[in-house]
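ARCHIVE RECORD
Type: protein–small molecule complex
Small molecule: zinc ion
Source of inputs: curated submission
Record status: active
Notes field left blank by submitter.
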Amino acid sequence: MLCPYCGENRDKVVDSRGAQEGQTIRRRRECLACGKRFTTREHLEFSAQTQVVKRDGSRVPYDRQRMIEGLAKACYKRPVSTESIEKLVDQVEEEALATHEREIHSIDLGRAIAERLKALDQIAYVRFASVYKQFRDLDDILDEVRDVLASAASDPPEQGRLF
Ligand SMILES: [Zn+2]
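STRUCTURE (tokenized, with ligand):
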């Protein structure tokens, strides 16, 4: 991990433990160059090492911030806290991490998000799913998701035909 103080890429882990909520692993690290200590979480590592495979086969680095912003759009004016959104993204990352794959397909990522969003907020789910059906690539969904809405919300797609 890059040291946030000096930018060195050499450190040792001095402590490692799961966070109280869920399985996010926090690691306390000590920079071997400057000696300062800092904490990392597993999702930071996930971002650094995971590539998203798009429908056309191209690969882009996984972008956690973009996921969060896209979901915030889907949850526009819905009673869903930023914390809930971050937790959802944490869960999806943990699930993907557990497979030990360095790549994840955009479609699978979209599906994992949609499933969890469904449990969190129905309207946000329908917004997301409506776009998901049309575009299929997560990038497109994250860009477009908020605009579909009011109409889609009153006419939810049938279950089982979303994917
Ligand atoms: Zn350092």
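CURATOR ANNOTATION: The first helix runs from residue 42 to 49.
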